[in-house]
Amino acid sequence: MIEDSPAVRVGDSGSRPVHLLFSELAKPFGDDPTLDFLVKARGQWVSIETLVRTWDGDGLDTFLSSLAEDFRGWEGARAWRSLERDLTISAEHRPGGYVHLTWGIHDRPPSEEWHFETTTVHAAGEEMRNLAAEFHTFLTSTVE
Questions:
Q1: Is pTM beyond 0.70 here?
Q2: Close Cβ partners of 60 (under 8 Å, ≥ 6 residues apart)
Q3: Mean pLDDT computed over 112-127
Q4: pLDDT at 23 over 70
Q5: 130 Cβ contact partners less than 8 Å away, ≥ 6 residues apart
Q6: pLDDT recorded at residue 1
Q7: Helix/strand/coil (H, E, C) string of the chain?
Q8: Which end of the chain, N or C, is more open, meaning fewer C-beta atoms within 10 Å of its C-beta?
Q9: 14 or 129, greater pLDDT
Q10: According to the model, what pLDDT value does residue 5 have?
């Protein structure tokens, strides 16, 4: 990863810290809206990474922004997935004003041999707005 390249780091709290790093944004087909990035999950007992393929970000920043706007809560889980389902998110609003994001990282098709999940906890409202803004900046940054 180039030192000044855009990246988003999520997680790294609790008794079993696992963090996610989103980096290496690329447009593999030139002007086509396909947008790829690398997601890495790192922690004491895990070290995985996979390439995530999206169609112009698949609205990831918009999904996170909608969670921030509904800071008072919602019933059930809300879900997001990337174009090829290599990254999924399930969001639940829990008592006390916290949003639990369960990040699923999946092996790329067609093998789909493995699947990893980790959950990060974020204060509803401002913290979620900041996360959405970081992803917006990341997904809209200039790709060389």
A1: yes
A2: 54, 80, 82, 89, 135, 139
A3: 91
A4: yes
A5: none
A6: 42
A7: CCCCCCCEEEECCCCCCEEEEEEEEECCCCCCCEEEEEEEEEECCEEEEEEEEEECCCCHHHHHHHHHHCCCCCCCEEEEECCCCCEEEEEEEECCCEEEEEEEEECCCCCCCCEEEEEEEEECCHHHHHHHHHHHHHHCCCCC
A8: C
A9: 129
A10: 77
Count of all residues that appear for the chain in the document: 144
Please give the single-letter amino acid code of residue 60: L
Q: Report CA Rg, the chain.
A: 15
> Rounded CA gap, 46 and 48, in Å?
6
- Whose CA is closest to 37, among 54, 19, 25? 25
Unique residue bearing structure tokens 């990474």: 49
